[in-house]
Amino acid sequence: MPEGSRSVVVRLALVVGLPLAASAAAISATHALEPGDPTREGPPDAEAPVPKQPGVLRIAGTGSALPLVRELAAEFQKTRSGVRVTVEPSIGSRGGVQATADGAVDIGLTMRPLADAESELGLVALPLARSPIVLAANRSVPDDRIDTRDLRDLIDGSRPVRWSNGHRALFVSRERDDTAWKVLGRMLPIVKAALAEAPRLGRWRVVYFDDDMEVALEGTPDAVGLHDLGAIGIQRLDLKVVRIGGLDPTAPEYPYFKELHLLTRGTAEGLAAEFIALAHSAEGRRIAAEGGYRP
Amino acid sequence: MRVSRVALAPAFARRMASLATAAGIVIAVSVPTTYYVIRRIEESEEARTLARQVARVVKDVAETRGTLWRYNVPKIAEGLEGFEEEKELAKVLLLDPRGHKFAVQMQVGQNRIPFNPVWGTADVQANNRRIARVAVAMDPSEIQRNALILLAGFGLVGWGLSTLIYRRATAQVERSEGEVRTLVRGLESARAGLEAELVDATKRIAILSERTTKLLEEDRAEIARDLHDGVGQSLYALKLRLELLSDQLPKDLQSSAERTASLVDSAIQEVRSATKAMVPPALEKLGLAGAVRAACDLVATSGDLDVDLEVGTLPDDLPPDVASACYRVIQEGLTNAAKHARARRIEVRLGADEGILMIAVRDDGKGFDPARAKRGVGLDGMHARIEALGGAVILQSKEGHGTSLEARVPMSV
Lengths: 295, 413
Description:
Chain A is of the alpha/beta class. In chain A, 43% of the residues lie in helices and 21% in strands. Chain A is built from eleven helices and ten strands. Chain A has helices spanning 3-33, 66-78, 92-102, 116-119, 148-156, 179-187, 189-201, 210-219, 229-235, 270-280, 282-291; strands at 56-61, 84-87, 107-110, 123-138, 145-146, 170-174, 205-207, 223-228, 239-244, 257-265. In chain A, strands 1, 2, 3, 4, 5, 6, 7, 8, 9 and 10 form a ten-stranded mixed sheet that branches. Chain B is an alpha+beta fold. Chain B has seven helices and eight strands. The chains are: A alpha/beta (295), B alpha+beta (413).
């Protein structure tokens, strides 16, 4: 290559290559300073199979079933010395299904039937009880009923809704994926859209667990929120029920229920089978009925 | 310098092309690169912030929901509704401290891990124990797309600016080069005029010098004749009379007369010497070749030197001034070689060819540096004589390597 041509090539390589190399170096340095992919292949330590402890029955799932299950557990332990039933805090119906499938618990709790995909995990769902979905209110609320339109306006915030004492009504929302409002929304189309939008709009406080809802309603004057009659009754919560459109949740024709189920991985055995037998026994049905649950 | 050698614009254009290209590329890539780097850094910080937020929520759940807290992850995701507004949020992963993914994961954001995501991580500390790690992946595609748009835009700007810079700079240099060319043309024209004037002046000087030399030679010849014919003859007559008178004088006066005659004889010899110095008698009597041979013989015998003379064919009608000038140059060369150079051998060449008389005197003496040597009357006289006849003298010498003196004179002058 002639000297002149080589010089031109070198110059071109410098003037083109240097800025591009500097740019590439800056981008590479930026990437290098960022944290890389933090994921590793393999199962997490926390999900290793938990060895079953003899004499211990672990139950977890939807918070809606916990009050009844705790009562049943107390009754279960009365007649079985050396047996301990551990009822974990709420992990939701979905968590209950997954924990049962993982073998993390002996009995899972849901307030809905199994989805098709969940049935394929080899789970068996047994009905436990039904609990009427109600509009629970702080004890300060003076009214016993609310019109569906008022309920809609209250939830979507389109109009301030006031109780008969002139106080503005407040609403405590559940998360968008909650079963209770889905059931209520199916039954009352007029409030369905408002319920669906409430968590997203952020107008009202959103809670994710039944026990959080109970705390919120008991501690917030003029507040109402969706809950279930069984949980209120069996725990003797200081809440009142506001009838929606005048419907009496204790009436046999009341249509809005949470359907509570017990889950096992395969056919229940041992303590799990005994517990389920208790839940389905007359004693179990009595405990549920006294709390306001229905078979 | 010739005008054709003034070629600033092409060389400048080559260098300017490199600079303009570099400037264009710098403009094209600097802004997109800066944008990309800054946005990646911002995105990385945003990912870290989101990861910390999720980690705080996970911590609260873990500390209040017991050992099965991880099954609350879907609910945690519900608590992150606001994350839907984060368009670049691609995936939120809940990992154990070693980075293994939990089976239950959040369904927020785009719920997919894009290519080359921007990661942000935060550890979850609950009950003084590291129980999990939250990893947030941000989608960089918008940053990449915007960077490419900027690259295209600033590429055009860079190209436009570099072209503008290049054209303006080269046009300015071309204008300047045109002005320089005009200036050089003017200088060359002036130089040509001065050279023509110099040639005319040189010719005039040569003519004047020739005339002066002729007049000098004529005057010297006339003086020599006057001395020889006048003073010389008178002294010779005086000497004869003294010799005659001496025979008639008494004995005691004869010696005085003889001394006087001897003085007259010395005067006669001095007149003859002066006459000889003024007119090269040998040249007049022997012609150029004979005179040169005589001069060589004289130097050889008086200085004990080896003088090698070669004489070519010379025309019969050699102009006297040419012959005289050449004789004097050879004489000067021989004198310098014998007296100053301390030479042992001298070569003398004399010849003519195609109307040019050529002479050369070379010696093996001590030589000298012509650049540093003082030009004496002899050398300047040589140059003046030869150049006055339209010829040229070439003097070459080097310390320790002898001296070469060559001259070429047109015979038609």
